[in-house]
Write a structure and sequence with these properties.
Layout lengths: L2 H29 L3 H119 L7
Helix pairs in contact: 1-2
């Protein structure tokens, strides 16, 4: 409890005491008071003081509870800061692992691409070699066809 709450409690107690005080004054002036009435009022005053002591005790308990809550909040803030640090470290580790995975994938793709490039180069070489061989074969067939045509169209020699 802070000072304002204490003042508020004191004010409430004063409000409670004010009627009692005026009642006491009225009794003293109006009755010329007997000893038993004064004793009764003294016991009422003792009860009020006892009540004030209880209120003070309650205020001390509230203060103690608030101090406990405050230390609990400080502990929670410390825990949250630790969790945030741990999460940042985990994020960093995960990011690093992801980059490592990307690197491994790219290396694997590079190796695969190199193998395919080599194979495609061999196929291209073979195809161009086959085209050259095919052209040479076509030239030979054409020459043979021309000879056969010449032989078929030639006139037989006449003996004479």
């Amino acid at each position: 409890m802070d000072h304002e709450d204490i003042e508020q409690v004191r004010f409430l107690i004063r409000e409670e005491l004010t009627p009692l005080k005026s009642e006491l004054a009225a009794m003293r002036s109006g009755m010329a008071g007997t000893q038993s009435e004064i004793t009764g009022m003294q016991s009422e005053m003792a009860e009020v003081k006892s009540g004030m002591a209880e209120v003070k005790s309650g205020m001390a308990e509230v203060k103690s509870g608030m101090a406990g809550m405050q230390s609990t909040m400080v502990g929670m803030q410390t825990t949250m800061a630790g969790m945030q640090t741990a999460m940042a470290a985990m994020k960093s580790e995960i990011t690093e692992q992801m980059r490592d995975m990307q690197t491994e994938l790219l290396r694997g793709l590079d190796a695969f691409a190199r193998g395919n490039f080599s194979r495609m180069h061999i196929f291209d070489t073979r195809i161009s070699s086959n085209d050259t061989q095919l052209a040479a074969t076509n030239d030979r067939i054409t020459a043979l066809e021309e000879r056969v045509l010449y032989l078929e169209t030639r006139r037989p020699q006449q003996s004479g």
